[in-house]
Structures are given as C-alpha cells and as structure tokens.
Write a structure and sequence with these properties.
The chain is α+β, with helices and mostly antiparallel strands. It is built from five helices and six strands.
C-alpha cells in the first residue's frame, strides 16, 4: 500500500459517533434526574396538604388533589410534562397506561404491602400513608448509534415517587373519638357512674389536644 492517507478515518468516525451518543445519553440522564426532583417536590407538596388537619378525610384528600393539580398544571411546571418527554400521574382515571395519583390516608389504606414484608412491621402501618405518583421518562427511550435501543423490556423508564407524611386527625374523627370516650367513661365499673348522669344532652364533647 503506497498511500496511507485516511487510514484512521473509519476509527475516527466510530469514536466520534460513540462520543456523540454518550453525550446525548448523559444529557438525557442529567435532565431526567432534574425533572425527577421537580416531580418529587410536587408529590411532597401534595402530601403536605393531605397531612394537614381538615373537616374530614375526604376534605384532606381533596386538598391534596387540588395542590397536585395546581402545581402540575400551573404555568411553571406544566411545560415540563406536556412536551412528550416526561409523564406524571394525573388525578383522573389515568392517561393511557399511566396510573392515576394514589392517596392513602391510613386506617387500613396504606403502603404496608408495597414497602414491607408480609406480616412484618404491623406497628408501622399508620406511618406508611401519603401520596404517590408514577413518573415516566420518554426521553430515555433512545436508540444510540452502534448500540441500539437502551429501553428495558418491561415498563420502560418508569418509577413511583412517594411522599409519606402522617396525616393529622380530621375534625370529624376527633369529635367521634371524643364521643366514644364519653360513652366509655360512663360505662366504667359496669355503668356505676351513670347515677351521676342527670341529662344525656349535657354531655358535650370537646377537643382537648387534637386527639
């Protein structure tokens, strides 16, 4: 071979293509992680609204959904989840394959079966409550040169973001607790305190310390 010009051209092109592909992958990964932090903030803010005391459990759940929608559909964060690159659960019945926002308020409705071994940590079941959303990154479903697709075969690049905050007792639950406690006090000792009970209407339940 008398002329060696362009001898390493093929190797150079392969190296440039690989470097270009890795650059795209690095950008996609870092940008996805940034959006995950935004989504986690939305979920946490919703869980905080859910945890605050309210009239009843339904009002607490509604407050969480309203906070979630105000952030997800607001002018600041809405462009991040409406460009097709990323998806986040909605408060409706779900969009396509995306599950809806989950709100579990305790009292048997918790994440114990998802984050604990079966039959274990029963005493922690009341703390495993809060808000959970599903996040999906369509941006990571790439096909790199000389590598091919990097998408997994199951649900793609999908993760569940959870914010667990113990819910404050609602006003309805607190009043019911006080009413039950009054009846329990009158029933002590086989009901002997009933002789001091003049009129049933004089029993007024009061919240002392939020139950």
């Amino acid at each position: 071979m008398l002329n060696q010009k362009g001898f390493v051209t093929s190797e150079f092109l392969i190296a440039v293509i690989i470097a270009f592909g890795l650059t795209i992958l690095t950008f996609a990964m870092t940008f996805t992680l940034s959006i995950v932090e935004v989504a986690q903030y939305i979920v946490y803010s919703s869980s905080r609204a859910h945890a605050a005391a309210n009239l009843n459990i339904d009002a607490q759940r509604k407050a969480a959904e309203m906070k979630y929608d105000s952030l997800l559909k607001g002018p600041v964060f809405a462009p991040l989840f409406s460009n097709g690159w990323f998806q986040l659960s909605g408060t409706g019945q779900g969009s396509g394959s995306m599950p809806r926002l989950e709100i579990r308020s305790g009292g048997g409705e918790n994440y114990l079966s998802d984050y604990s071994k079966q039959g274990a940590d029963e005493e922690k079941k009341n703390s495993l409550q809060g808000v959970r959303a599903t996040f999906q990154s369509n941006l990571l479903e790439l096909k790199l040169p000389l590598v091919g697709t990097i998408s997994p075969e199951d649900d793609g690049f999908r993760a569940r973001l959870t914010a667990m905050l113990i819910r404050e007792v609602s006003l309805q639950e607190c009043q019911k607790f006080m009413e039950d406690r009054v009846q329990a006090l009158w029933s002590l000792g086989g009901g002997r305190p009933n002789r001091f009970k003049k009129n049933q209407t004089t029993d007024v339940p009061w919240e002392d310390n939020g139950c």
